[in-house]
UniProtKB/TrEMBL annotation:
<keyword id="KW-1003">Cell membrane</keyword>
<dbReference type="InterPro" id="IPR003439">
    <property type="entry name" value="ABC_transporter-like_ATP-bd"/>
</dbReference>
<feature type="domain" description="ABC transporter">
    <location>
        <begin position="4"/>
        <end position="229"/>
    </location>
</feature>
<dbReference type="GO" id="GO:0005524">
    <property type="term" value="F:ATP binding"/>
</dbReference>
<keyword id="KW-0547">Nucleotide-binding</keyword>
<dbReference type="InterPro" id="IPR003593">
    <property type="entry name" value="AAA+_ATPase"/>
</dbReference>
<keyword id="KW-0067">ATP-binding</keyword>
<keyword id="KW-0813">Transport</keyword>
<dbReference type="InterPro" id="IPR017871">
    <property type="entry name" value="ABC_transporter-like_CS"/>
</dbReference>
<dbReference type="InterPro" id="IPR050093">
    <property type="entry name" value="ABC_SmlMolc_Importer"/>
</dbReference>
<dbReference type="InterPro" id="IPR027417">
    <property type="entry name" value="P-loop_NTPase"/>
</dbReference>
<dbReference type="GO" id="GO:0016887">
    <property type="term" value="F:ATP hydrolysis activity"/>
</dbReference>
<protein>
    <submittedName>
        <fullName>Molybdate transport system ATP-binding protein</fullName>
    </submittedName>
</protein>
<dbReference type="Pfam" id="PF00005">
    <property type="entry name" value="ABC_tran"/>
</dbReference>
<keyword id="KW-0472">Membrane</keyword>
Length: 229
């Protein structure tokens, strides 16, 4: 099994009255890695470092054989070039853009550039894949929770990322929808064979996606379980 994720980073975060030391170290050959742990454990900070939204003080990050960060050689691939999709907890859709425009956002190469033919086709593909055709011209506030989540996933996947990072992807959904979206995402991940790193508090997510489960507490990954699956 080839290495999908290889992370070994240090970061000290300081606020007025406290210091938080993050030391995230793990390696995985799995394409379904789940990180769980209590609130404030450092999960989001680790994810941000992989996405390039936080720069570690030292260490190295590798994704599917590609080095994204290495403090010893000065490598720090910019966010836009990491080819990593990051789905935030609240989906962070652009409120002033409709579904189609939200999905196309990451594809637009430059300000005011018209979409290329390939980009238009990509948008059509994802709109169909997530059954969003009937809401393509609606705005985020006119969508249901499940539709918003699908738009966010489509937007994340449209630029064909090398990895998918998900922070509590189902937390905002009601339980029935959560189960359905879990199934959809699980099937999609397998179909695309895209490495996925997921943060969650929910044991059901661990059960559904945790081929490799990492537990994080107090800034460190201290317990690692390899499932038999
Ligand atoms: N800019 C900052 N300066 C100082 N400390 C910070 C900063 N950002 C985050 N922290 C601290 O880093 C720790 C880890 O935060 P992080 O958001 O990674 O936790 P988490 O495990 O994702 O929690 P949750 O599950 O609640 O989202 C927290 O204790 C937080 O207070």
């Amino acid at each position: 099994m080839s290495t999908q994720f290889k992370v070994d980073i240090h970061k000290t975060l300081r606020s007025a009255d406290r210091e938080f030391k993050l030391h995230a170290r793990f390696e995985s050959g799995s394409q379904r890695v789940v990180v769980y742990g209590s609130s404030g454990a450092g999960k989001s900070q680790m994810m941000k470092a992989v996405a390039g939204l936080m720069t570690p003080d030292s260490g190295r990050i590798e994704l599917a054989g590609r080095c994204l960060f290495d403090s010893s050689t000065g490598v720090n691939v910019p966010v836009q070039q990491r080819k990593v999709a990051y789905l935030f907890q609240d989906y962070a859709l652009f409120p002033h853009l409709n579904v189609r425009q939200n999905i196309g956002f990451g594809l637009q190469r430059g300000w005011r550039n018209p979409l290329s033919r390939a980009d238009s086709e990509a948008i059509r593909y994802w709109i169909n894949a997530f059954e969003l055709g009937h809401v393509a011209h609606q705005y985020p506030h006119e969508l249901s929770g499940g539709q918003r989540q699908r738009v966010a996933l489509a937007r994340a996947l449209a630029p064909q990322p090398d990895a998918l990072l998900l922070d509590e992807p189902f937390a905002a959904l009601d339980p029935g929808l959560r189960e359905r979206m879990r199934e959809e995402l699980g099937a999609l991940q397998r179909r695309l064979a895209i490495p996925m790193l997921m943060i969650t508090h929910d044991p059901e997510d661990v059960r559904a996606f945790g081929e490799h489960v990492l537990r994080m507490e107090n800034g460190s990954i201290f317990h690692v379980e390899e499932s038999a699956a």
